[in-house]
Structures are given as structure tokens and as C-alpha cells.
Amino acid sequence: MSIKKQKLVVAVSSRALFNLDDSHTIFETQGKEAFCRYQIKHEDEVLAPGYGFSLVKKLLAINTSCPDDPLVEIILLSQNSADTGLRIFNSIAHHKLNITRAAFTSGSSPYHYMAAFGAHLFLSANADDVVKTLDAGFAAATILCGSSLTNSSSQLRIAFDGDSVLFSDASERIYQQRGLAVFAENERHEAKKPLPGGPFKDFLKALHHIQSRFDSESPIRTALVTARSAPAHERVVRTLRAWEIRIDEALFLGGMSKGDFLKAFGADIFFDDQRGHCNSAAQHVATAHVPHGISNEKALKD
């Protein structure tokens, strides 16, 4: 195919990639020096996978079809120091993850390096880092938890909420401030006007670019899982068409709980801006919270 190659770059934190609960507890209860001593003492002990581990493995597996010119790169962005980060890289080597680039920032937020690495997404367990990354204009999410049920398919399946994630929160603001009837009328009136992009638009575009390189079955499948219903669906369809972005499945649930649908889709991860939806979805699939938009502004005020 004569499509220009574009690498998808995903940044991941140490605690999103591996289970660092023990050392993080030491950091919180005993301080930085105790944490450093613990990490150095245990640097030859392999870390168990964290909630983002299986997602990273599936992303890296996409490169098996083009090992000489990979389509995906994983970057480690960590608040560890290079010294304490040695345990992280030892575990990366043990698990045979092809991750070679990293930034260790010794306690400061690593989001400043997103642009330098050309990263499309930052997946972290640190909510403050995620907010700073979003504020800087990059897609980012806090991985909250995961389900014991994993998708055994080799295909990577990623699901997104719509408003405040793929799209801006402009319509969501109308719904929350003026009610469902006004929201529905606005969406009918603006049906042919594309929605403004949200923080995950460019990440979805990068996924679509990889999908377009495969004539047969793509290694990536995407889904929009939204509380919208007809007739508010039309604007969403026309928006994606205007963006020239394909989404494989679109579920307009009209307020139904999303968990069972995400399980049926077989999502490897689901991105949503509302904590309530995330908590429900996390019973079925790995879930990441996108602290963006009016719902999160209201949560900060409460």
C-alpha cells in the first residue's frame, strides 16, 4: 500500500507497566530515601505485570509484521531516578519487552518529554501527571485497575467514550447545564456540524493510520461506546466522516451501563472521562480515567 508510515508512540509509567505497590507504599509511608534503598536492594527481583502490561505487549506485538520498520514504539516515562530505575529495565528485559527509550525524572513530572519523544498517549498510575499531560495538549489517562478477564485474542481492541474523550465536552456541557431536551435539540440542529476534537482525537487518528496499512485483518480494532442515542448519533457519525477516521464499532447505548458491552467487544482497555463509568467498566475490562471536561471540573468542586 502507498501509505506513508507513521509510528504510534505510547508513553507508559513504571507503575502502569509493573506492579510497584510494595515500593510505592514505602515511598508514601517512609519517604524517598527508604524507597531508593528498597529499589536498589531488590533490583534483581523481577516485577510482576501491572494493569497496563498486557496492553503494552499487544501494542509491541503489532511490530511482528514489520520488524525492520516498526509501527509502534513504547517509551518509559518514570519519576524514578536512573539508579532506582535499573530494576524497571531489568524487569523489562526479563519480560522480553522491546522498550529501549526512557526518561527518569527523579520525582518531577515527566510529561515535559511527551513532545520530544513524539508521543501520542501517556498511560500512568499518577493522576497528577495525567492532568498535567492533558493540560499540555496530549492524550493521557490514569489506569485505575484491570479485570482478571483478559482478551485472549491477538488483536488489540481499544474502546473509547465519545464526549470529553474523542470529542470536546461542548455538547456534554449543554447536557449537564441545561438538560437532556436542550442537548437533544442542539444535536439535531448541529447534526451536520462536526464536533470539535477532544484529547484523544490524535491518538485515534494514529491508530487509524496503522489500520489503513493492512489489506487483510488489522491487528487493531476500535470501538466508540457512548451514552448517546438516536438522534444524537448522527453528529457523531458525520464528525468521524469529516475527520476521515474509521472506527470499527459504534455502540449508542442511551444511558445503559457500558460494562457488559465492553466485555462483549473484548476491550483490552476502555477510556472514559467519568469515574462512575470507569468503576463500572473495570469489573469487566482494564479501564483508564481521562480527567478532562466538565464532569471532572465539577468533581474537583465537590
Task: Explain this structure.
With 302 residues, this protein is an alpha/beta fold. It contains 14 helices and ten strands. The protein is globular.
How does the overall form come out from the CA principal axes?
globular
Query: How many beta strands in the DSSP annotation?
Result: 10
Number of helices: 14
Global mean pLDDT: 89
Unreliable runs: none
| Helix-strand sequence | EHHHHEHEHEHEEHHHEHEHEHEH
Task: Please give the share of residues in helix.
Answer: 25-40%
Going across the major beta sheet, what is the strand order? 3-2-1-4-5-10-9-6-7-8
Structural class estimated from helices and strands: alpha/beta
Give the N-terminus to C-terminus distance in angstroms.
52 Å
Strand coverage percent: 15-25%
* Quaternary organisation: single chain
Largest sheet report? 10 strands, mixed
Task: Give a brief description.
This protein is about 40% helix and about 15% strand.
What layout of secondary structure does this protein have?
Elements: E1 8-12, H1 14-17, H2 21-30, H3 32-41, H4 53-61, E2 72-78, H5 86-94, E3 101-104, H6 114-117, E4 121-124, H7 127-135, E5 139-145, E6 156-160, H8 170-178, H9 180-189, H10 201-211, E7 220-226, H11 233-243, E8 249-252, H12 259-265, E9 269-272, H13 275-281, E10 287-289, H14 294-301
Parallel strand pairs: 1-2, 1-4, 2-3, 4-5, 6-7, 6-9, 7-8, 9-10
Antiparallel strand pairs: 5-10
Helix pairs in contact: 2-3, 8-9
